[in-house]
Amino acid sequence: MDWEKEIQKLKVCDFEELPGPKSKEELEEMKMPFEDYCRRVFDVGNEFVKPEALKGIRWLSTTMYIFTPHSVANLAELGAEVIKIEMPRMGDPMRHTSPFNEAYLYPLHDTRPMTGTGLGFTNANSNEYFITLDYHVPEAKPVFYNLVKMSDGLTECYRHGTFDRWKQGYRHVMEINPRFIYVWGGGFGYGPKIFGGSYDILGQAHAGLASITGTHEDFGGHATKATNWVIDWYSGTQISVAIMAALYWRGKTGLGTMIEFSQVQAATRCCGYAVPLYGRFGIVRQRWGNWDTQLCVHGIIMAGKSDFPDAQNPQDRFEARYVMVSAFQDADFQELCNVIKKPDLYSRYKTHKERVDAAAQIEIYKAIEDWAADKSRSEVVRILKEAGLLAAPVMNDREVYECEHYRQRGTVRWNDDPLFGDILVHSAYSCGLLSKTPRRHRWLWRPVGADNVKIYHELLGYPMSKIQELYDKNII
Amino acid sequence: MCDIIWCKKDMGDGKICDTVNYLDPYCFWNWEGKVACAHCGTVYYIHMIQGHMYAGPEEKPGEKPDILPLYADQPNNGYFNYLPGTEGRTRPYTCLPRHIYLGKADMVKFSIRGRPVRGWRPQPPSAGVAGSQGYFWDIEKLSPEVWEEYQEKIRRGEVKDW
After folding, report:
1. Chain B window 94-113: which residues touch A at a Cβ cutoff of 8 Å?
2. Do A423 and B131 touch (CB under 8 A)?
3. Which residues of B touch A468 (CB under 8 A)?
């Protein structure tokens, strides 16, 4: 018997004849470049064909302004069904705030045709369903409890113990639904200052963050808050992290949790090494503005000329002249000194320890700004980049909108909002990409009580006559 | 606050009107036209520059006013006042720029890339129970005039992707 031939007959297929790599090395060669791989798995623009991570979670939101609403918008963008409960006819106060003048979207509610929702509401309430309920009224209690029975959790932002007093705090709802996850996003949380409410600026101030932000008084600066409500957005996201952990814990134990979240406390985390520094040495950290206390050169400098001297918008005409520069390694710093024609600076500050010193930083940054005084922002960036250094323009909103990098990644994109039409958004798509279950943006928001029928009739099963009755009594 | 019009019009019964008409900077900061006294209705011509009375107030009997003051009171009469939005006397305060009062409202109908947006004022009622709203705004059906303008923009090549 010719065994060789018999074995050949038994072979299902010939490995050598199969398409594809024949060795590990060949496999490595045939793999698509990482860039292409990322483009394929994240597939920007086709998020809606993929599943949603939090599909099946139903969350109630009795929140206002940005801090607590944002914690829930995070869930809604990841696929949770979020029901936002607002006061009848009024809605979240954030609807009625900045920016002023014409930046409103109408309608707000049938009864208020001349009132709209301000764009300040953006990003904190995406993808949610909007119902109204005045839960101060005893008649509204059973409605609220019915919602609790059918939901996984609630985020509220009232003053301490308010929901508890109204018999809808964690101690009460856990008796109705032991799996319920309850978030109280208070200003200060419990403690000696329990009575204080909170705003973003209060969080920045009270946590010590504003004291280390901005330029030192020696240079004409003052304690500074970040212009936008960064601590609202930040602490809202921190709540979302806590909710994810609570959901995971509930998956293991079957039990809900109460999450108590103080906004002023959350902001202390942003202060970095300030607290342990004080604990070890008794040193109170100071502001250092657009420079860095740990690295030099690593800061923002001002060039002499704007990139758009003829632009109509002052943000372009006057402000497009700031550059972020980084050259803290010895070789990079030497190159920077050569570029700005100050080689003596390098000979005096050869080590990083020498140039990170405050007096040295003042001299170095001044030398760089003197060199940039007759140059535009883009010239400075080009020259430094050509020298192999890290430099980037400080961009404004328009430039972010026009930035090809963000466009290709889908960070900023146009959304055809089902109610408001063509809207430029960055909410869901600015929070990291997920290959299997990406975030997505469905709608910006909906008018006050727009989903009353969907939730009260379709979800809770109330007859339409009952809904009309509650509406006529101003309960919904 | 801008300058005021303190109306001293003789009311005929030995009394004067004695009403302070407050001219809010939102409307009157740089303004020329005719304002009616909230109490007696006397029409005054004024020309305001940077909040200061450049010309007037000058009585214009028989002429119609362009606008009403926002608020008026009578400090010598126990601070009797006319709150904003008193019909025929003061105008309502709804944070709207002046040109809207004059009937030239121009709400944004298109985004910066030329595609239609909604959200202008006023919007039609929802026609749903308890303020319910539909999930889709059919621009062609609900705002045919904006749809027409959009088609024209497409024809002119003014609609872009970015």
Report:
1. 94-95, 97, 107-108, 110-113
2. no
3. 129-130
Looking at chain A, which residues constitute the CATH 3.40.50.10540 domain(s)? 58-269+428-472
B138 touching chain A per CB within 8 A: no
Query: Each residue of A92-125: b (16+ CB within 10 Å) or e?
Result: bebbbeeeeebebbbbbbbebeebbbbbbbbbbb
Which residue type is seen at A94?
M
The two three-digit tokens of residue A308, written as one number: 């758009």
pLDDT by 10s per residue, chain B, length 162 = 678 999 999 888 888 999 999 988 878 888 899 999 999 999 999 999 888 889 989 999 999 999 999 899 998 888 889 988 888 899 877 655 555 555 555 678 999 999 999 888 778 777 689 989 888 888 898 889 999 999 999 999 999 999
Residue contact B118–A471, C-beta within 8 A: no
Start-to-end CA distance of chain B, whole Å, equals 43
Alpha-carbon distance B159 to A12, whole Å? 59
CB A305 within 8 A of CB A377: yes
Closest residue in B to A463 (Cα–Cα): B129
Q: How many CB pairs under 8 A join A and B?
A: 107
Instruction: Tell if the CB–CB gap between A414 and B95 is shorter than 8 Å.
Output: no
Class level of CATH domain A58-269+428-472: alpha beta
pLDDT in tens, A375-398: 999 999 999 999 999 999 999 999
Whole-angstrom distance, CA of residue A441 vs CA of residue A420: 13
| ipTM of predicted assembly, 2 dp | 0.80
Alpha helices, DSSP H, located in A113-218 = 141-149, 162-165, 170-176, 200-206
Q: For the sheet containing B43-49, what is the strand order?
A: B31-36, B43-49, B52-59
Q: How far is CA A379 from the centre of its chain?
A: 32
Is residue B23 within 8 A of residue B48, CB to CB? The reply is yes
Ranges in chain A annotated CATH 3.30.1540.10? 298-396
| CA closest to B161 among chain A residues | A414
* Closest residue to A110, CB basis, from B97, B126, B162: B126
Q: Which residue of A105, A422, A451 is in closest CB contact with B116?
A: A422
Q: Can you tell me the distance from the alpha carbon of B97 to that of A468, in angstroms, rounded to the nearest whole number? A: 37
Tell me which of 3.40.120.10, 3.30.1540.10, 3.90.320.10, 3.50.50.60 is the CATH number of domain A298-396. Answer: 3.30.1540.10
Q: For residue A208, which of A298, A143, A275 has the smallest C-alpha distance?
A: A275
